[in-house]
Write a structure and sequence with these properties.
The complex is a heterodimer of chains A (649) and B (120). Helix content of chain A is 40%, strand content 23%. By secondary structure, chain A is an alpha+beta fold. Chain B has one domain: Response regulator (Rossmann fold, 3-Layer(aba) Sandwich), CATH 3.40.50. Classes of the chains: A alpha+beta (649), B alpha/beta (120). At the A-B interface, helix 1, helix 2, helix 3 and helix 6 of A face helix 1, helix 2, helix 3, helix 4 and strand 5 of B.
């Protein structure tokens, strides 16, 4: 095993690709026969089998082998795809995925027994054998797998060898016992001998060997001028145990066959292919990213120093460095981008499983999977998206009967679409299900004590829908296996927000719902406004700033414990950052920030400027960091906290 | 010792094979990830021997073998195969492959076969 450690990463990466390809094509196959999908699945399983065998993962190999056996039959048209078989193969692919996970974690798959799946596959094969074979030979046969027995020009067994002047020999060839494909070895030996002369007789015949009727030894007669030694070498080869050569006394002429093959030039393209893609370990990429971030910070420092000292030459040089660093930074951002398909590809399977579990019929469409997101955003998006999709099928789409009664098509429709909109990536999830039942939501919220009946009566439907995102709220009457246990939309919202994104929902009763996720394509670099309060600096993300206004202390109003100000006919709560930064007596400027639909404002002394910064997360050793999403290092080396608006408003 | 072109659609298998061949003192002329690329690389690199996977996308190993044989009837091609693919291998041998190795690869067997085929 240890000798294969070096290949572990490679094995995992390629096995994942093959696994994904297999699942994707299994789902295609469920919709109807598709020869290309069958070929792709076969190829993926075959590759997985070979790779796992090479790594010594016997259980994984066994499972792949059993799956391959079945696909061989499907490929040849002997067996057809059924939903039952689809379920079985998908279950097998799940075990395969677990095995790949296990290998990635340093395991050797031995903790995951595929006995149940292999047993089920074998049983399926047994059942098939019991049935007559109605579809056999119905066209879908794969040409390349069919050996044509006609392609044997020489070597018909003849009783009377007639070799003329050319010396003839009787050769006895025995293939080694441990050889895995004895008949193939025999064919190679025969082929090598044919190149040296004319085979007059052979037993068993080539046709018989081709058909697999070979017990390990053969006798042939050949007319050849190559000499005993050359014949010995030609017949002897890998896994050939013994070759005995005896000259034949009777000699007669045989017309030597023209063995030179027709010199056809294949019309292949001249273009030689270069390696255009390269796999890089993600940790190395993260390391480069860190280095680029350091460069960005140091570039800022250099700029500041140059400005202070007013050195013309240095300013020019820094200008050049500046451009290179910007380009490098942009390039790094692009390299870290991964198409959404990375997580989208798994979703058709999820929809299928949930729909089947709930006995619903769903058509699932995905668009814009090529839209790219930073890897860090992608990592955090997987779970929330999975949850929303399950929700849409589980809670959104009605059962076929209910849908028909409501005059809708039996099949529900779920559409997942992504696109880039200026600086954001927008992901929409639309279903044509029942929509959110506002009254039910209100009732539930009152029952759960989230709001009072009086409040409930005054809520608009938009506000009521917002209740879905309250912690602990779930409209499902019982916890199902599908939608997750007690994990509600509040967790989804929090996950999206931790990615600096937002989530909105629109719903029309009876018509369906639309979830919209707005995500930044990347998280690492943020445009911020640098402000100063009480001599200390603070960075506020530009994306959450609505307005910067003048602030007069005497225009504030006291409401309860808090303070508010009337600004453009709006009452805004004032957030003093005294606790965080200390009391300031100046505070001439008011920064209005917005999160979702809520606004508030922060009084600051002065606004220093706006710049792009790299946000470094805070270590978990630092206790309560509420209100701060991380820190950034400015050009002069000052460490500045970055305000986390989401947790403040 | 020969200059070898490795053809397999997975980097994993290519790397495995490459290391085995290196350990046997061979040099690697190049690698190809599918049949089409194999034929193009053969034309370009003129290797002494080709290890050819059977199941590959675009153009499978048999078709690639035909392509290479058309370019060079004396090409030495060793098929990389798995138990259960006897029919494919036989077809390859009839098409002109000089040998075969069975996955999972055992280094001594691979080197023996390569040596024998290079000597032929």
């Amino acid at each position: 095993m240890s000798e294969f450690e070096a290949y572990r990463g490679l094995f995992v990466a390629e096995s994942r690709e093959n696994h994904e390809n297999m699942v994707k094509n299994l789902l295609i196959l469920e919709k109807g026969s598709d020869q290309n999908a069958i070929d792709e699945i076969f190829r993926s399983i075959h590759t997985l089998k070979g790779a796992s065998a090479s790594m010594g993962f016997a259980d994984m190999e066994r499972l792949c082998h059993a799956m391959e056996d079945i696909f061989q039959l499907i490929r040849s048209g002997t067996a057809g795809m059924t939903q039952e078989l689809g379920n079985l193969l998908l279950a097998c692919s799940d075990v395969l995925e677990q095995m790949i996970d296990d290998v990635e974690g340093g395991g050797d798959t031995s903790s995951l027994s595929p006995d149940k799946q292999v047993g089920a596959l074998k049983q399926w094969l047994e059942d098939l054998k019991g049935k007559p074979e109605p579809t056999k030979g119905k066209g879908k046969q794969h040409k390349k797998e069919q050996a044509s027995p006609a392609a044997t020009p020489a070597g018909k067994p003849t009783d009377t060898p007639d070799t003329g002047d050319i010396p003839a020999y009787t050769i006895n060839i025995t293939v080694a016992n441990e050889c895995l494909m004895k008949d193939v070895r025999a064919m190679i030996a025969i082929g090598n001998l044919e190149a040296l002369g004319t085979i007059v007789s052979i037993n068993p015949s080539k046709e018989a060997i081709d058909a697999g009727e070979f017990d390990g030894s053969l006798v042939l007669q050949i007319a050849s001028e190559a000499g005993e030694e050359a014949l010995q070498t030609a017949a002897m080869g890998t896994e050939i145990a013994k070759v005995e050569i005896k000259p034949v006394v009777k000699q007669e002429r045989i017309a030597s066959e023209d063995t030179s093959a027709a010199k056809k030039q294949a019309a292949t393209s001249d273009k030689s292919r270069e390696i255009k893609n390269l796999r890089v370990d993600i940790t190395q990429l993260d390391h480069i990213m860190n280095l680029v971030e350091d460069l960005v910070i140091n570039r800022g420092r250099l700029k500041q120093i140059a400005e202070q000292h007013r050195i013309k030459e240095m300013n020019e040089a820094i200008g050049m460095v500046d451009r290179s660093v910007s380009d490098l930074q942009n390039l790094m951002m692009i390299i870290r981008m991964i198409p959404l398909n990375h997580i989208f590809n798994r979703l058709p399977r999820v929809v299928r499983d949930v729909a089947q579990y709930d006995s619903k019929e769903v058509e699932f469409v995905m668009e814009g999977g090529e839209t790219e997101l930073d890897r860090s955003v992608m990592d955090g998006l997987n779970d929330p998206l999975l949850h929303l999709i399950r929700n849409a099928v589980n809670h959104g789409i009605e059962s076929p009967e209910v849908r028909e009664a409501a005059g809708k098509p039996r099949k529900g429709f779920v559409r997942l679409a992504a696109h880039r909109d200026r600086d954001n990536v927008i992901i929409e999830l639309i279903d044509d299900g029942a929509g959110v039942n506002v009254e039910k939501v209100k009732k539930k919220a009152v029952e759960k004590g989230l709001i009072t009946q009086e409040t409930a009566d005054t809520l608009t439907s938009d506000q009521a829908v917002e209740l879905l995102f309250q912690p602990g709220f779930s409209t499902a009457d019982k916890i199902s296996d599908i939608s997750g246990r007690g994990v509600g939309l509040d967790v989804v919202r929090r996950s999206i927000e931790s990615l600096k994104g937002t989530i909105r929902v629109e719903t029309t009763p009876g018509k369906g719902s639309r979830f919209e996720l707005l995500l930044p394509p990347t998280m690492a670099i943020v445009d911020v406004m640098i402000v100063r309060i009480n001599g200390k600096r603070l960075a506020i993300p530009i994306s959450s700033i609505v307005e910067v206004a003048n602030f007069k202390r005497d225009t504030t109003h006291h409401i309860g414990n808090g303070e508010a100000i009337l600004l453009r006919d709006e009452v805004l709560q004032i957030f003093w950052l005294n606790e965080m930064i200390g009391t300031s007596s100046v505070c001439d400027v008011l920064i209005v920030i917005q999160y979702q639909k809520r606004k508030c404002c922060i009084p600051v002394d002065i606004v220093e400027g706006q710049q792009e910064v790299v946000v470094k997360p805070l270590s978990s050793f630092i206790g309560n960091t509420r209100g701060v999403s991380g820190v950034t290092i400015l050009g002069d080396g000052d460490v500045v906290p970055v305000l986390d608006v989401n947790t403040m408003v | 010792m020969g200059k070898i072109l490795i053809v397999d659609d997975t980097l994993f298998m290519r790397t495995l094979l490459k290391n085995i061949l290196f350990s046997g003192g061979h040099t690697i002329a190049g690698e190809a990830g599918d049949g089409e690329e194999a034929v193009a690389k053969y034309k370009e690199l003129k290797p002494d021997l080709v290890t050819m996977d059977v199941v590959m996308p675009k153009m499978n190993g048999i078709e690639a073998l035909k392509g290479i044989k058309a370019l060079d009837p004396n090409a030495r091609v060793v098929m990389c195969t798995a138990v259960g693919q006897e029919q494919m291998v036989k077809l390859a041998i009839k098409t002109g492959a000089k040998g075969y190795i069975v996955k999972p690869f055992q280094a001594p067997k691979v080197l023996e076969e390569v040596k024998n085929v290079l000597a032929s």
